[in-house]
Design a protein that fits this description.
It comes from Thalassiosira weissflogii (Marine diatom). By secondary structure, this protein is mainly beta. The protein has a domain of 72 residues. The protein is built from 2 helices and 14 strands.
C-alpha cells in the first residue's frame, strides 16, 4: 500500500507523469464488453473498476442510466462522457485533445463547420500542406496524437455563420431539435446569395 502513487487530479500513470484530457459527451460510444470476465454484461449501476485516475467514480460494463426530458428512464442509452468525446486522441504530455478531422473544441465535443479552406476536396485550401495544417485527412494526416493549437479558419467559407443544429432548426420556421447533439452538431447558415454545405 506504500509502494504506489496516488495521482493528483488530472494526472495518471504509474508515476503520475501523464495528463488526463477533457471529457465530453461521446459522439459514438465504445462498447466496453465483459470487463470482469464474468461472462455477463453488468448493468449501468454495477461498478467494475473504482478509483481509477481516468474514471474516479468508477466504470461500468452497461451504458449509463439516462432519462428523457419527462423523467422516463431510457433502457438503451449512449453518449457517455468520454475523454476527447471519443473523437480525438489525448496528448498525455500537455493534456490537450487532438481531434479527428471534422471535430473541434477542448474535448473534441463539436462537429466542425464546413470550410473551403479546411476541406479535404482536392484543390481546396491554400498551399500544398493546407489540409495537413487544418487536420483534415489526406495522404499525410496530421492526426498523430499530439495536440496542436490550430484554429479553424474561414468557417462556412467566409460567407455564413457557424451555428448549432438547435439554432438552425429554430431558424427554420421555429422547429425544435432537442436531442443529445443539439449543442455539438454544427452547420452553416449561409449569407444571402450563397448556398452549399
Amino acid at each position: 500500500s506504500h509502494d504506489m502513487c496516488t495521482c493528483d487530479r488530472n494526472f495518471q500513470g504509474a508515476d503520475c507523469s501523464l495528463r488526463t484530457c477533457s471529457f465530453g459527451k461521446a459522439h459514438v460510444d465504445t462498447p466496453r464488453g465483459d470487463l470482469d470476465a464474468s461472462l455477463t454484461i453488468g448493468d449501468h449501476n454495477d461498478i467494475i473498476l473504482a478509483g481509477s485516475t481516468l474514471y474516479p467514480y468508477g466504470i461500468t460494463e452497461g451504458f449509463p442510466l439516462m432519462s428523457d426530458t419527462a423523467g422516463t428512464v431510457i433502457a438503451n442509452t449512449a453518449h457517455d462522457y468520454m475523454e476527447c468525446s471519443n473523437k480525438g486522441l489525448c496528448d498525455r504530455i500537455n493534456g490537450l485533445c487532438e481531434c479527428l478531422p471534422g471535430y473541434d473544441g477542448a474535448a473534441c465535443q463539436r462537429a466542425s463547420c464546413p470550410s473551403k479552406a479546411n476541406s479535404s476536396t482536392p484543390g481546396s485550401g491554400q498551399g500544398e500542406r493546407s489540409n495537413t495544417n487544418f487536420k483534415v485527412f489526406n495522404a499525410n494526416s496530421a492526426f498523430h496524437g499530439r495536440a496542436a493549437e490550430v484554429v479553424q479558419r474561414d468557417q462556412c467559407s467566409g460567407h455564413g455563420t457557424c451555428m448549432t443544429i438547435e439554432q438552425l432548426a429554430f431558424l427554420d420556421h421555429g422547429n425544435t431539435h432537442d436531442l443529445w447533439d443539439k449543442d455539438v452538431t454544427m452547420g452553416c447558415k449561409c449569407d444571402p446569395g450563397y448556398t452549399g454545405p
